[in-house]
User: Fold this.
Amino acid sequence: MSGNPASFTTVTVDDRPFAYFRELLEQCNGGPKKYGGITDLSELKENLRQHCIPEGIFDRLAEDYDAFLEERRKLMATRTRECLEQL
Assistant:
């Protein structure tokens, strides 16, 4: 591939997270491929899990940033604890 490497991973996202996550969910349900290569719902959920993004992001959490941060903080704490226990 040629060109600016950053252009291959950068996506233009509506300024509202809810719109982005709604469109990503639609992409996984056969809608137009707009963001990255994830087109399978189970792959999307695994990707969210790996990045400590609560699944509630598809509904209420995308509109309530403070609630999103609270839920993500809990997931990140759990992930950190699991990693430390493996040491």
About this structure: Confidence is low (pLDDT under 50) at residues 1-9. The longest helix spans residues 65-85. The chain is about 60% helix and 0% strand.
